[in-house]
Every structure is written in C-alpha cells, then in structure tokens.
C-alpha cells in the first residue's frame, strides 16, 4: 500500500515538473516566435508548438537510447541518494519519460488552441 501511494505521488510530482518545464519552454518559444515573427500571435503559437514537439521527440529518442544500452553498458548514477529524496519509487528514466509526455501534451494543447483560433 505504501509503495503504491509513493508511486502515485512520484507520478504526480513528475508530471508537475513536466508541466512546469513545458510551460516555461512554451512561453519562451512563444515569445521568440512572436518577436521574430512580425508580432503575430499565430506565428508565436506555431513556433511554440514546433519547438515543444522537437523537445519531446528528442527527449523520447534519448530515453529509447538509454533503454537500448541498459544491459550492454550499465551507467553509473552517483546521485542516487539525493534522487531518492525527491522520487522514492520512480527512476530517472521514468521521470524523464513523464516529462517528455507532459511536453508532448503541451504541444497538443497549443495545436488545439491554434485550431480554435482559425
């Protein structure tokens, strides 16, 4: 029961970190697209969506690479004690994956906002 509760709390915390990361990245990309795209909101949203999709895809590609080499060359994770203070059950690959999913969801939300604006 305790492990399930810790897993749920870790998942919520990982998604929270992912949402915060996606929001900051999305705002920065939107501002860059807005400023360099002729002060058009649609251009800012397009750049934000494309950038978020690129970051999510690269992150998922990195996770796939980490999973493929897991058995061949085990990595040494020195900060395990400090990691366990933040996430009791989930490993860093799972947390990174959830962050990528949150960034992908933010890109989908920006795309939906663009569809509503048309």
Describe it for me?
The structure is a single chain. The chain is built from four helices and no strands. The chain is an all-alpha fold and 118 residues long. Helix 1 packs across helix 2 and helix 1 packs across helix 4.
Structural class: mainly alpha
Percentage beta strand? under 5%
- The global form is elongated
**Tally of discrete structural domains:** 1
Q: Largest beta sheet, briefly?
A: none
Q: Please estimate the helix content.
A: over 70%
Q: Please tell me the overall pLDDT.
A: 89
Low-confidence stretches: none
End-to-end Cα distance, whole Å, is 48 Å
The protein's oligomeric status is single chain
Which sequence of SSEs, written as H and E, runs from N to C? HHHH
Number of H- or I-type helical stretches: 4
Work out the number of β strands.
Answer: 0
| Gyration radius, rounded | 17 Å
Key terms:
118 residues; mainly alpha; 4 helices
List the helices and strands and how they pair.
Elements: H1 2-36, H2 41-68, H3 80-86, H4 92-117
Structure summary:
With 118 residues, this protein is an all-alpha fold. The protein has helices at residues 2-36, 41-68, 80-86, 92-117. The termini are far apart.
């Amino acid at each position: 029961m305790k492990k399930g509760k810790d897993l749920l709390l870790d998942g919520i915390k990982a998604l929270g970190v992912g949402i915060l990361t996606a929001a900051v990245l999305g705002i920065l990309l939107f501002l860059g697209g807005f400023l360099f795209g002729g002060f058009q909101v649609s251009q800012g949203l397009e750049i934000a969506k494309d950038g978020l999709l690129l970051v999510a895809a690269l992150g998922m590609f990195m996770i796939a690479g980490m999973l493929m080499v897991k058995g061949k060359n085990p990595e040494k994770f020195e900060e395990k004690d400090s990691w366990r203070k933040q996430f009791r059950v989930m490993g860093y690959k799972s947390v990174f994956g959830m962050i990528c999913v949150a960034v992908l969801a933010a890109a989908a939300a920006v795309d939906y906002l663009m569809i509503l604006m048309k």
